[in-house]
Write a structure and sequence with these properties.
It is built from 7 helices and 7 strands; from the N terminus they run E-H-E-H-E-H-E-H-E-E-H-E-H-H. By secondary structure, the protein is an alpha/beta fold.
Length: 198
């Protein structure tokens, strides 16, 4: 999971009376907590240069932090994390974006179960143009192409679009206040709720 330093994250997410950096960090922490609670996830690796995030994540079990280093952009950060844990592709791997404040472990597990049947998989965001999760099976070379319009790029790289319901919390990433409201309707994680309620 790549996570930008909170001071630079979520530049389009403006909520009156809420510090953007605090909200971005809370969203990332709720996403991390849900991922680690998923029964099909063996290890969650966080690639970040945000030291505050690492300290606040101390209460979340089984996280491994990898320094972002010279990585530039989501795909470079993800490649850094993959190289740190499994450069030879000896196990299934997945990249999950860190902006899913409503994520439920069962929704992530359903996508990972589906991903077991394809060499590469991708989950579309709620708008149907971006991606929230990309997977690669054992022995399959890792590649990803996150960013605006990434779903089409991932499909062109050989990713099968997984059949995840529209209402899945795995599809509800948050970059804007409107998207945050949509995620709120699904139920936000406790850290995000706390920041919004402060």
């Amino acid at each position: 999971m790549p996570v930008k330093p909170s001071a630079r994250a979520k530049s389009r997410l403006e909520v009156d009376g809420v510090a953007r950096a605090d909200l971005a960090r809370a969203i990332a922490l709720d996403t991390l907590a849900a991922a680690t609670a998923c029964d099909l996830v063996a290890q969650v690796v966080v690639v970040t240069a945000d030291g505050v995030l690492a300290r606040e994540a101390a209460t979340i079990p089984a996280l491994r932090f990898v320094p972002e280093g010279e990585a530039r952009g989501l795909d470079a950060a993800i490649a850094t994390g993959i190289a740190a844990i499994d450069p030879a592709g000896r196990m299934p791997r997945a990249a999950l974006l860190g902006d899913l404040p409503s994520l439920r472990p069962d929704d992530l597990a359903e996508a990972l179960r589906q991903a077991n049947s394809v060499p590469r998989g991708v989950v579309a965001d709620a708008e149907g143009t971006g991606s929230t999760l990309v997977t690669a099976a054992t022995g399959v070379e890792w590649t990803s192409a996150f960013g605006d319009g990434s779903l089409a790029r991932h499909v062109s790289l050989g990713c099968a679009a997984l059949s995840i319901p529209d209402a899945s919390t795995l599809r509800r990433d948050v970059d804007t206040a409107v998207q945050l409201d949509a995620a709120r309707a699904l139920g936000l994680g406790p850290r995000t709720v706390a920041v919004l309620s402060a």
